[in-house]
């Protein structure tokens, strides 16, 4: 009997391959920066949309095609990214994809000017960026489920997840200055170039060349799947706890996309004389410490002897339940200051989902957490696109923002109830069967 390949052997002994404390700290900081750069590249197009529209003569519909095209690609590679992370290692998937999206981001201004079809080239560049970034969070989930101790998992995931708010803030602030000083191409050059520098650092200091070549070899062989590495998807999706996690992740993603997309318009229309930097910056400044605090609190409660599932459900009560209360308040106030407070509280409290359902997926099936998170995040992204469109329809037909914020609360309430009723933290039994992917 031949021994399993190295990547399979590593998966079979997760306890032996977990990071030491110094390794965990180094990787947490590195991945936080990676998430920050991911969002820098992601929001470069929205930051530059007005300037690009002026240069290329795009109308609102054409600009909307470019901005939405990212999500067309983003929805397609979630499951693939998670499965690859489970097979060859999430850190390798992240490094390879970051190399590609960094190059595309840095080359975007050149691609946009290749010919007269600016809209086509820009749309294709954004679709490719979405395809490549779609693998990131599922691969990250797979990596942390294998490498981080359960007692430290919530804080690690929350700290890394805080990079999304940092990246949004950095690009919004620095990008605005670059637009004024150097023009919109400089925003893409900077975010793409920094990503490639980050890739070089990870490759040189945190990954061995042997491991990376091994991963490339597996990909070159077409990911020939042995029975021991197949995903037991029938067993997974027969478990109510798995559906509860998927439902809760779907709800949190959907409500986040709705608020992210419509809050700026809400403030501009409701408070025309307000300063844009206040409502575009303050909620994300609140979200960063909130995300870190949620992770610390979750790990502390578990270390004090509270049941893991009790802590996960408490985090979801805050992340989905309490955040919805503040979202509802947004539709019933005419004060700008109160609206900023309510929006900041709602966005900030949503980060508690990082220590709830996002980590719960790793509790249930660490060996295929990337695949499962990919499924849940795909559903959440698709639901988010639908929710954003439906929110616009409700605003247009009712003339009131209350209906949209009510929808956010309803979506969150459904996911929360499902998770409270059926959520578990006990590892799902995935004994080998013939029914596998």
TrEMBL record:
- Swiss-Prot/TrEMBL keywords: Cytoplasmic vesicle, Lysosome, Membrane, Transmembrane, Transmembrane helix, Transport
Q: Any stretches that span the bilayer, and where are they? A: 93-112, 118-143, 155-175, 187-206, 242-262, 282-302, 314-333, 371-395, 401-422
Reactions performed catalytically: ADP(in) = ADP(out); GTP(in) = GTP(out); ATP(in) = ATP(out)
Membrane topology type, per the record? Multi-pass membrane protein
Under the heading SUPFAM superfamilies, the entry gives: MFS general substrate transporter
Per the record, what is one GO cellular component? chromaffin granule membrane
PROSITE patterns noted in UniProt: MFS, SUGAR_TRANSPORT_2
Record's keyword annotation contains Membrane = yes
User: Residue ranges of region Disordered?
Assistant: 1-21
CDD domains hit by this protein: MFS_SLC17A9_like (cd17380)
Localization annotation? Cytoplasmic vesicle, Secretory vesicle, Chromaffin granule membrane; Lysosome membrane
Question: Where in this chain does the record put each Major facilitator superfamily (MFS) profile domain?
Answer: 1-427
Q: Name the Gene Ontology biological process terms.
A: ATP export; purine-containing compound transmembrane transport
Presence of keyword Transport: yes
| Recorded GO MF terms | purine nucleotide uniporter activity
**Member of which family?**
Belongs to the major facilitator superfamily. Sodium/anion cotransporter family.
Its function, per the record, reads:
Voltage-gated ATP nucleotide uniporter that can also transport the purine nucleotides ADP and GTP. Uses the membrane potential as the driving force to control ATP accumulation in lysosomes and secretory vesicles. By controlling ATP storage in lysosomes, regulates ATP-dependent proteins of these organelles. Also indirectly regulates the exocytosis of ATP through its import into lysosomes in astrocytes and secretory vesicles such as adrenal chromaffin granules, mucin granules and synaptic vesicles.
Q: Know the name of this protein?
A: Voltage-gated purine nucleotide uniporter SLC17A9
Q: What is the gene name?
A: SLC17A9
């Amino acid at each position: 009997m031949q021994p399993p390949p190295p990547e399979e052997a590593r998966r079979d002994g997760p306890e032996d391959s977990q990071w030491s404390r110094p390794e965990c700290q180094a990787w947490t900081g590195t991945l936080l920066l990676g998430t920050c750069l991911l969002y820098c590249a992601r929001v470069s197009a929205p930051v530059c949309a007005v300037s690009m529209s002026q240069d290329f003569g795009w109308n609102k519909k054409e600009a909307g095609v470019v901005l939405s095209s990212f999500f067309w690609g983003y929805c397609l590679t979630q499951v693939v990214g998670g499965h690859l992370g489970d097979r060859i290692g999430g850190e390798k998937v992240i490094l390879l994809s970051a190399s590609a999206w960094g190059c595309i981001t840095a080359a975007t201004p050149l691609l946009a000017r290749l010919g007269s079809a600016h809209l086509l080239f820009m749309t294709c560049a954004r679709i490719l960026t979405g395809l490549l970034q779609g693998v990131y969070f599922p691969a990250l989930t797979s990596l942390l489920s294998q490498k981080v101790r359960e007692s430290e998992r919530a804080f690690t995931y929350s700290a890394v997840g805080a990079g999304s708010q940092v990246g949004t803030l950095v690009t919004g602030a620095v990008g605005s200055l670059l637009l004024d000083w150097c023009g919109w191409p400089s925003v893409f050059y900077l975010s793409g170039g920094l990503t490639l520098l980050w890739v070089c650092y990870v490759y040189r200091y945190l990954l061995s060349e042997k491991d990376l070549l091994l991963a490339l070899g597996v990909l070159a062989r077409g990911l020939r799947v042995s029975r021991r590495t197949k995903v037991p998807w029938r067993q997974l999706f027969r478990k109510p706890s798995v559906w509860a996690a998927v439902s809760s992740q779907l709800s949190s993603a959907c409500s986040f996309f709705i608020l992210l997309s419509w809050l700026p318009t809400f403030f501009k229309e409701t408070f025309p004389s307000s300063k844009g930097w206040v409502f575009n910056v303050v909620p994300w400044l609140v979200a960063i410490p909130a995300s870190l605090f949620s992770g610390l609190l979750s790990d502390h409660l578990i270390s004090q002897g509270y049941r893991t599932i009790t802590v996960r459900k408490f985090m979801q009560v805050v992340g989905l339940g309490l955040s919805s209360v503040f979202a509802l308040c947004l539709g019933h106030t005419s004060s700008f200051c109160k609206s900023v407070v309510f929006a900041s509280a709602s966005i900030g409290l949503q980060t508690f989902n990082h220590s709830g359902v996002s980590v719960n997926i790793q509790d249930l099936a660490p060996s295929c957490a990337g695949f499962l998170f990919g499924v849940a995040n795909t559903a959440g992204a698709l639901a988010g696109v639908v929710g954003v469109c439906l929110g616009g329809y409700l605003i247009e037909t009712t003339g009131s923002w209350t209906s949209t914020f009510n929808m956010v609360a309803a979506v969150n309430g459904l996911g929360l109830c499902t998770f409270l009723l059926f959520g578990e933290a006990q590892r799902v039994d995935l004994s080998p069967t013939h029914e596998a992917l």
